[in-house]
Amino acid sequence: MVSFAPFALEIHGLVKRFDRPAVDGLELTVRAGEFYALVGPNGAGKTTTLRMIAGLLRPDAGTIRVGGIDALADPVAAKRIVAWISDEPMIYDKLTPREYLAFVAGLWGVEPALAAARGCELLTWLGLAPHADERCESFSKGMRQKVALAGALIHEPRVIILDEPLTGLDAGSARQVKTVLRERTRAGGTIVMTTHILEVAERMADRIGIIAHGKLIAEGTLEELRLQAGTEADAGAHDGGSLEDTFLALVAEQAQAA
Amino acid sequence: MSAAAGTAFWFAQHESRLAWRDWLAMIAAGRRERLRKVAIGVIAFILFMHFVAYWMVGRYAAAAIDKQTLLAITGSVLLSWMLMISQAMESITRAFYTRSDLDLILASPADANKLFGVRIATVALGTTMMALPLAAPFIDVLIARGGWRWLGAYGLIVAMGAAATALAVGLTVALFRVLGAKRTRFVAQVVAALIGAAFVIGLQVAAILSYGTISRVAVLQSGTLLALAPGIGSLLWWPARAALGDGLALFGVLATSLALLGAAIAFVAPRFGEYAIAAAGAGHSSVVRARRDAFRGRTSPRGALRRKEWILLRRDPWLMSQSLMQMLYLVPPALMLWRSFDRGNGALQLVVPVLVMAAGQLAGGLAWLAISGEDAPDLVATAPVRPRCILRAKIEAVLGVVAVVFLPLVAVLAVASPWHALVAGGGIVIAAAAATAVQFWFRGQAKRSQFRRRQVSSRLATFAEAFSSIGWAAAAAVATASVWLAIAPAVLALMVLGGAWSMSPRPRIA
């Protein structure tokens, strides 16, 4: 993994308004090699934030730097090192996984021989090798999500942005995806992920950011978040309180303040 | 008033409410204020159609019941009926394959047969209602000029709608039984389109082969056909006689058609659920393998995008058929071309605009697929490729297909007349580029499977695309005789494009 700026992602004063502010002066930094989970209630601005990072939405104000590159000034250079996966895997029904990977590799300008080797490796790793030459139209949601994940990894992105990647996956597929993501961070990659499954954030993330009304209301490790929420004492002595307790306490606090 | 739950009338209420809301949503696109504009547009269209009808059929209002009249009416009725069968078959196929509320209905304790019966009857009603606005102006003019006897024509339309639906149900079920659920959708839609086009094209082909003209009317007015036709007492003329106000014929035609529809409902409604369930499983019933070296050769992002578009088009026979169906209409001009090798260049005048028009229409459909019908828009948008490069690749993919379809035809034309080939080639390029530009200006985000709805999603784009193609076709036709005279239709086509550009909802920069 190529080294780069200490922060894989730096967001300052990010604003996006639709009918109302969806993201409202967001400040966020994610270190290189970190697994960062962004959690928040429905409509908090998580997906809008990720879509702006991926270059799918243009912010009304603020800056986004990915791997030290200004993503708004030079979106093409930023996209070169980013991969985006949404909860609804967007793949082509009429292509096979192998063809899909070849197409994605072509878009990112990966050498064909290298792409073929990586493609084989990824398909095997994700358990898709037996289906590599079947058209995706007959695939289940889990298989489609795995094809999308393979596509996201074929160009060895430094930053992977995932929007609810585990939604609708069975236990086996979810575990495979989690294993792949963990491997990526071990290899130095950075992962920014939104999830509704707080247990996943609790177990996998190095740091967790809680977003509400388009603002980051709390951030840190699980321990740091517990301290901020003051839930440690309330939650009993046995486990120090789950992320769910902490999350609910922080969101309720924010709602009261608002 | 609300009917008792679970009765056929209750289901009919439910269906009509849904149909009404769908129609409103389609017409108003979520904006109530649009309804007034649409109403004004509809009234203007109806008035315009009455003028057209007066010009076309006004002089036939007092026609006597003779073989010539019966033959002309029967031909027109058959032509319309073919189109109605095509429309009904489309609707029935959609009813079988669209899940929407079927899971809910089939899982409920209600008698689904009643709903399915209502649904088939709704198709008949929809088919009739679609034909009425087009037929009504002609019938009104005939009533105004020829008297109340022509009122029977309205009854005939109802009979045609019922019979067309009954036949469409029969054909679709037969396909289901013979081909299975997986293939029926595609085949039924192709058959529907072929039925719709067959009669028009058939008459044109017969006219070209027999009389050297592309006019369909030539066949219907021919002495040969008149001599072969049965006497005026034959049952074959009953639909025409019904239109002319013969009470017995009208009763016979209506009773037969409604009985056919009743039989179709009675036979198919109990099996509808079974067909719908089979259709639902059709997508997952088999695995299609594609063994080839996907990673072969170095390719640029533009090349990857072009290749992807071509593979997707090649792999989707339904989309391919929808796009290429327009090419069916090239059969008559191609025949004309073939005949004209012996008869000089006069007929080529007709071939050039048809080729240009068809190229515009084909390019428009393909451009929608490539530009708006992107199944993975996020993937393409997050790739490190400039939007301009993506657009260029997609336009190249579209024009590549247009070139593959039209180059052989232009090459044959060049053998007959190099000048006509040159004009046709130029016209094809311009018409294809113009249609692609319109689709670019009105680009949206949709699934490729929504291809059929593209014309509804932006009527402005549809009209702009059609009028631009017509304009370039006219310019090409005139240019074969005089390049200077072609400037006028070309300017009109440019004005259409300018208007479309100024009204397009998107920023002008890619």
What do these coordinates show?
The complex is a heterodimer of chains A (258) and B (510). Chain A has ten helices and ten strands. In chain A, a hairpin with a 3-residue loop joins strand 1 (7-17) and strand 2 (21-31). Chain A is of the alpha/beta class and 258 residues long. The radius of gyration of chain A is 19 Å and the shape is globular. With 510 residues, chain B is an all-alpha fold. The radius of gyration of chain B is 25 Å and the shape is globular. The mean pLDDT of chain B is 80. Chain A binds chain B through residues 54-56, 76-77, 79-80, 82-84, 86, 90-96, 98-99, 101-109, 111-113, 115-116, 119, 133-135, 137-138, 151, and chain B through 283-284, 286-292, 294-301, 303-305, 307-308, 311-312, 315-316, 375-386.
What's this, in brief?
Chain A is α/β, with parallel strands linked by helices and 258 residues long.
Which consecutive residue ranges of chain A, at least 5 long each, have pLDDT under 50?
none
Number of helices of chain A: 10
Radius of gyration of chain A (CA) equals 19 Å
Mean pLDDT of chain B: 80
Distance between the termini of chain A: 43 Å
Estimated helix fraction of chain A: 25-40%
The percent of residues in helical segments of chain B reads over 70%
* Alpha-beta classification of chain B: mainly alpha
Low-confidence stretches of chain B: none
Q: Work out the strand percent of chain A.
A: 15-25%
Main sheet: strands, sense, barrel of chain B: none
Return the string of H and E elements of chain A.
Answer: EEEHEEHEHHHEHEHEEHHH
Instruction: Please provide the count of β strands of chain A.
Output: 10
Strand content of chain B: under 5%
Tell me the number of strands of chain B.
0
Which oligomerization state do the chains in this entry correspond to? heterodimer
Q: What count of helical segments of chain B does DSSP give?
A: 21
Instruction: State the order of secondary-structure elements of chain B, H for helix, E for strand.
Output: HHHHHHHHHHHHHHHHHHHHH
